[in-house]
Amino acid sequence: MLAVTWVVALLGALPSRGADRPLADGGFVTDFEILLPRGETVAPRAHPGPDVDLRVALEAQPAAKVERTVNGALRMRTRLRSSGGQHELRLGCDGVCELWVDGAMVLRRAAPYGLWLDDREVTVTLNAGPSEVEVRLEARRGRRESLRPRRVALRVLPPAGVAPPVSLMPVAPWLSRGSRSLTIGFEREVPMVGAVSTTELRVRGTVTRVSAVAGDATPPRGPVPLDATLNVAPQVSSGGALGHAVSTGLSTQATSTLELPIGPDGDRVVTLTLTDGKGASESIERPIRVTPALLRGVPPALERLGRDRGRRDVAWASLAFWTDKVLLMHGLDSATGARPPTTPESDSRLVAQGFEQLRLAIEDFDDSSHFEARSGAFVRAYRSPFDGAPQPFAMYVPDAAIRGAGERGPGRRGARDVPFIVALHPSGYTPTRTLKGVLGLESERGASRARLSHLLPSAAEIGRFDAVVAAPWGYDGTGSRYVGKVDVLTVMDLALGHYRIDPHRVLLTGGSLGGLGTWQLGLRMPDRFSGLMPIAGYGSVRLYDNVRGKRLAPWERFLVDRRDNVTFVPNARYLPMRCVHGERDNPKRSEVIVERYRELGYPAAFDVLPGIGHAAWDDAWAQKAALAFVQSTARPDLRAGPPDRVTLVSGSYRHAMAYGLTIDRFADHARLGRLDLERRGGRNPPRGATARDLDDARASPVLVFDPENVARFTAELGDAPTDVRVGGRPFSRLRGRQTFRVDAGGRWTRESSSPPAATSEAPSTLDKRPGLSGPIDDIRYEPHLFVYGSAVPADTETNRRLAEHLSRYGWTDARIALPVLADHELQPDQLRSHHVVLIGTPASNQWLAQIAPRLPVVVDRDSITVGDVIHRGAHLGTTFIAPNPLSPNRYVLVYTGTDRRGVWLAGWLPEWLPDWVVYDDGITTERGGYLMGSRRPLGAGFFDEHWQVARP
Prior knowledge:
Elements: E1 5-10, E2 21-22, E3 28-29, E4 33-35, E5 41-42, E6 45-47, E7 54-59, E8 73-82, E9 85-93, E10 97-101, E11 104-109, E12 120-126, E13 129-138, E14 152-157, E15 168-170, E16 174-175, E17 181-188, E18 199-213, E19 224-236, E20 242-246, E21 255-261, E22 268-275, E23 283-285, E24 288-290, H1 292-307, H2 314-328, H3 344-366, H4 369-372, E25 376-383, E26 390-397, E27 418-424, H5 431-438, H6 449-454, H7 459-462, E28 468-472, E29 476-477, H8 483-498, E30 501-511, H9 513-522, E31 531-535, H10 554-563, E32 577-582, H11 588-599, E33 604-609, H12 617-621, H13 625-631, E34 645-650, E35 657-658, E36 661-666, E37 673-680, H14 691-698, E38 702-708, E39 710-716, E40 722-726, E41 729-734, E42 737-742, E43 748-750, E44 784-788, H15 793-807, E45 813-814, E46 820-822, H16 828-833, E47 835-839, H17 846-851, E48 857-859, E49 863-866, E50 869-872, E51 877-884, E52 887-897, H18 900-904, E53 916-919, E54 939-941
């Protein structure tokens, strides 16, 4: 006997059991029956869960034998009712599956990758009346032919010209601040004008334990049923505006809620357990202690936040952060990956510390100068430019780093300046836990994880630690890429601007994901740091399973080069590295970087810890090892000009500056650029030098620049007159800031040394430059929003679903909420403040239709034209990035196609893409990943310097 739980992912309405499912409602089919070998059937049961969608758990009875089903497949059957004609069905599943309609197979999906909703689409013609629809999931061979838990999603799209109804998206349950009650929210999507339909969302399930405990009272036992229904119908007001009528007395705002009271105000401990939708045995528990002090202390803080909501400083964000934490009464909540404390002792310590941190945040809010006077360990926040939420970071500041009265601005190097350690967290770690690890206090083995993970260390625990330590959160799982990089640099700048820090002694360190981030940032921005200490990182993307051995197109080879950390090791001449890796964790992942360091003669220590697995950071940071390392490093002083030798390798304008050198323009945007500098002459000859070496050393000093794939660069030469040679051409007696470029004849020339006047106006030509150079993923460094087309009702649901999928950024575990708007909701001022992602055909997206004539890619109903090449065929799609014609200092990223299906194909694209790519239905052989793999686009490449199609 084997009991198996089958899970069906859904969004939309749960129908009454036994009723035919209307086919043209645009929702997910959820009323499946499971057909088991001996004719048993299992019906679905719905549970509210913490995920963005509801899950239906299909539970086989213990007596049911499901080890081997009919023809080796699990059969799931449902009945749909149609008025006849053509309809579109979309099927998604996490393995091999088939879709059968009225006894005929209409679709087979065999791609070896996981579930994605609306994965395959098929058009079927149905007769009026009910139709039998069946999904068959094949058994996984080689595993005793037993059907493991699987997921399937069957979606019904409306016929052409018919708008889908209002849809309801369930969101996570939370605890209401005002009434302290269990709240389940449903976000309503705005339907198209003229749509007439009604959607019913029925939530069935069980809250397995809800109790209010007063003193020693015994909590009630047993489940509490949760059964509620929402009916939402679109209405047209007398003025023609579309609104909603909502039954059950819920509000008509963007979010409707159901509340389940859990007891009166006062001292109590509330324990709440909910099924999470991932399995019947999993649940969420949140102990919360509500005290009179909480009720008295939080309202004033909320009042302050409401009064000064426009503030964007650290004081405002920190107050918002700690107010939320105290309200929830469990320290760093799910926004930072923490978990509630597990013992009453740790709970009381955490509550006390939470109130103390809130008190300090209120002081900072009243007088922001208090932040600059804080020493010890604390958690602060700043307001994220991406979603406006408080972005936390943990810091330790020794007394020696506090400025004296009247001191402001960046730290000055002197006897009292202290080193700076920037610590990037391993996956799943909070900033607090990372901070304590670097301070030498963390220990995963044999210690209370709850206490170590959430409680800030005291001065007695820390002892003497003569360095400022900052532990950014990096939006959780970004690996310090994109928005994560912005977060790290923001926290660094805040620390450098507030405390007495020696800018020439800055160490970047991190474990696992943070080890990867150490290389990602340090090797591309080498003059921001004096040393690197990566631990258990993954050094080279060429070692990734989905990259190693793949056949690469020319543009993919460049994209791999610009992402591979090994590529940028030549930049680390003045960046000593101490690398640590566990012996049982495949040290080759770090060794590839160490080997390249040593090939170039750069200083690199490599410690392989015997018997240690992946979590090597506790051992690496023990005994204040990070402090000892940063004290032994020193970044070059650039006040007298660049160092004697510099190498700058870059594939992006964002990372094309170091040690006073800047690559301003690449000759070819599909190749890496390199700029080498060597100071020759004017030095003491080395021991054992030859006669020629003696002559070279004693000659007049000259700075020799050797550019490769560089068409323009700028150098800070210092105040002393210096001879310069660029690409073999001499220039005499130069000083200060100098810019060199290749002229029309291919010779190097010197431009005026005067910097261009600053202007807020858009440039006269749309040339590529930092922040506006592509490729497609370059948009992720600044705030951007997703805008789906709603002008064609039949396409709106597809456009919206794709926008939501793209906005989640499956390439990372980043915790960030990027806005998703309908095209009619986008305001003109948002074009000036954000990059914009436009989704839909030119006919369905009104903003895309407005700018289409001014874009470098032309999309018609049956063709896509890029440069001189015209692509024709069915269901064509294209993705490209370019300056926004309506706001030339911002990007527009376009996901479009010749029809709805062509737009939808963008969901199969990999992460690493050039400036533009054109594809058809053949792109669906794989989905996601880094590279195209077996997918062959119709065309792909980079735009030239002027955002035109680059010629072969």
